[in-house]
Design a protein that fits this description.
Layout (H helix, E strand, L loop, with lengths): L1 H14 L20 H6 L12 H6 L8 E7 L4 H11 L4 H16 L8 E4 L4 H7 L3 H13 L8 E3 L11 H8 L3 E3 L9 E9 L3 H10 L6 E10 L1
Parallel strand pairs: 1-6, 2-5, 5-6
Antiparallel strand pairs: 3-4
């Protein structure tokens, strides 16, 4: 049966080949979502190996956290920008899962990495999620969850009201827009937990800051932060 399925899959791929989310090239056998060339050449930050990395410094004095990192550097016109576009706007949530799975492998192999009790993705407003069909950060969280062998929870943190896109807004305006946006459901489930809070892109950090501060109102909660990308 497996042989029949494999042959059928190969036949279908002749006419509808899977393409790399990074460069658009056709994927070959054993590749999924990203081709080997893109995986090799992505701009990895390795922030998880440096506790005083650039994204961590961005949150110093703003959020009390245990660990803070981002997987990739983001810049305009880059392959990472294309990946994020595919993930958010081109109905390819598997990009988020793939990157979470890849980053999870790196994190669990890093010496000194503190495994969280729970992974929580930054939520979208329900109206935006209905329009998009999914929350891209959920899939990144799922990929991390698979590798780190800890659960992810997309129910306990909610966005209270709709905010416009933060793109092109100043850091101060972003912060003012995000204040008091997020609410915690069933806080007793998060008490005494080390939570890994994850998002797709960290720019000014206003969204993460607002989420983290909502979670830190819960008794003895500890926060770590991770994202797919960090804007240079």
């Amino acid at each position: 049966m497996n042989a029949v399925y494999r042959h059928l899959s190969d036949f279908v791929s002749l006419f509808f080949p899977e393409v790399c989310a990074g460069c658009g090239a056709s994927l070959v056998s054993q590749e999924s979502v990203l081709c080997s060339g893109c995986i090799f050449h992505l701009p990895y930050t390795n922030f998880h190996l440096d506790k005083s990395n650039r994204v961590a410094r961005q949150f110093w004095g703003r959020v009390t956290f245990r660990q803070c990192s981002a997987y990739l550097y983001f810049s305009k016109g880059s392959k990472v920008q294309n990946l994020m576009h595919q993930l958010k706007y081109n109905n390819r949530p598997e990009v988020g899962f793939k990157l979470g799975d890849m980053y999870g492998k790196d994190l669990k192999e890093a010496s000194g990495f503190e495994k969280p009790d729970l992974i929580i993705p930054v939520p979208l407003h329900p109206a935006r999620q209905r329009k998009r069909g999914y929350n891209q950060s959920d899939y990144f969280a799922e990929g991390l969850s698979k590798q780190l062998a800890c659960p992810f929870n997309n129910r306990s943190l909610k966005r209270g009201h709709f905010t416009e896109s933060q793109t092109r807004k100043s850091r101060f305006v972003r912060y003012e827009n995000m204040k008091d946006v997020f609410m915690v459901n069933e806080p007793e489930l998060l008490k005494d937990k080390h939570i890994l809070l994850v998002d797709d892109i960290i720019t000014t950090g206003a969204t993460i800051e607002s989420c983290a501060n909502a979670l830190l109102t819960i008794s003895n909660t500890k926060i770590s932060i991770a994202s797919i990308a960090f804007t240079e």
